[in-house]
């Protein structure tokens, strides 16, 4: 993981801009994407148990729905601590809007943390591939969850969640390519953007938001 930029995390527009300059040099097609996207802002979340639970909370939900559910969940006494969560009744958690599957997933993760099997603090210093492998070795944590956690919570600069549907749509439109049938094909395209792939993901998420809100080009 490269540490040669103004911040070890993509935690300011200026830090992101440095990465984007490198990206445009690596792939000139991104110049127009960057121009249309406008200012790319950082997306930083709390690390640790609360951070990974928030990512799981938001899976397959709109931003508005996820935020509403998270607000109710976070207000539950003990919900943001692994041991506290393990002491909660399922009905209490599900009343906040969690599905049965998400309740069980978070319980599995809380158990692993409480038992010392999952140490999220280790992730900042692991190379991205090792960090993803470490997370996904634990039941309930998939590739997308691992990569988004590494980007937003652990500050990794070279992670690209290629399974994200919004990123895929933005890449298709922004790069002028056909929709691809396999996640690995998007991942292969993004491999050319190393070691700046997290900034590329932020860029394409912003590009997708612009397309959706201003032009209605993507659904």
From TrEMBL:
InterPro entries: Alkylbase_DNA_Glycosylase/TA (IPR051912), DNA_glycosylase (IPR011257), HhH-GPD_domain (IPR003265)
Molecular function terms from GO: alkylated DNA binding; DNA-3-methyladenine glycosylase activity; DNA-7-methylguanine glycosylase activity
Residue spans crossing the bilayer: none
Catalytic activity: Hydrolysis of alkylated DNA, releasing 3-methyladenine, 3-methylguanine, 7-methylguanine and 7-methyladenine
Keywords, in A-Z order: DNA damage, DNA repair
Record GO biological process: base-excision repair, AP site formation; DNA alkylation repair
Keyword Lyase on entry: no
CDD domains documented for this protein: ENDO3c (cd00056)
Location of the HhH-GPD domain: 57-208
GO cellular component: cytoplasm; protein-DNA complex
DNA damage keyword on record: yes
EC number, as in UniProt: 3.2.2.21
PANTHER family attached to this UniProt entry: DNA-3-METHYLADENINE GLYCOSYLASE (PTHR43003), DNA-3-METHYLADENINE GLYCOSYLASE 2 (PTHR43003:SF13)
Protein name, entry field: DNA-3-methyladenine glycosylase II
Organism: Devosia limi DSM 17137
